[in-house]
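Workshop exercise sheet. Pairs work together: one partner reads the sequence aloud, the other fills in the structure field after running the prediction. Swap roles for the next sheet.
Pair: D.N. / O.F.
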Amino acid sequence: MEHDLIIFRARSPQELKERLILLSEDQKAAARLAEVRVCGSSILVRQFEFPIMPSAMLKQALRLEAAETLSLLPEEIEIDYRLFNSVTDKKAGLFTAISSKAVQEYLACFEGTGLIPVRITANSIAVAQDFLTQQKNLKNNFCLLHFTGKNVVNLAMFIGSEYLLLREIEYDSFTDAQQEIIDSLKYLLGRSAYKQLDALYFSGDTSGKSELIGILQSTVELNTQEKTEPGLKPEELMFSFLSGINLLKRMAISLNTRNRILAWTNTSLIICAGLSIALLINMLITQNRIRSISSSFSMQDYEYARKLQQSLK
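Structure field:
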């Protein structure tokens, strides 16, 4: 739980529903917002690279690619993407996709719970995002291996602070995991200008994984030369990049937007309260003046005015 946000990890709407049932009333009362992090093959996370094209055409191209991978029609897909800022001669970035039906089923799980879903994203994206919030002074080119449970590892590789590979790898044996991870690293390093990583980080449930970690540490060759790039803070750049990916963008207000609206509303309420107080004070002052004018007339003044009126008749 983060502030008033509850985070749920689930492979399916049914699993999310089961987690919501187990949620205590105290937990529900402590938070009003919810984020769903989807695991498994039902959600797609992939890099993309296209020639320069309008945003509408790019989104359609990504939708077609996702539809082919997920075996769905393009109109049955929800997608979101972010572009790499450093790439200017083409459209390159990261996108995620899931079926629209699954999104609706995830949203339906929250009916009657009192929780408001504000984000649906891939767990592999969220894992990397969480790591970046917890770490400082990271190397420029690094790989994160985050272990979830007994046989799942999330791989996130950051190159030049913006290019990255995000994968969720399920394995039956350490040998399978080792080969899959090494092949993934070789693939992306072969496509980049950097042929070596500066660092390899491990997080999550690392218990029982010491053999695999040791093999990877001895197999993956790291660059030992110190490089300094003033002003470059990859953890800040990539956190902003990853946290902006949200499959509910068309249907929900993001946390940042929600906070801005809340701040604007609070400011407006304060201004309205101030104006109300000022009007109340002004009304009281006016009433006091009326009372003081009324009290200044005596009975003698009244009789004089009455006689004057009669004489005029």
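Discussion prompt: The chain has ten helices and ten strands. What would you look at next?
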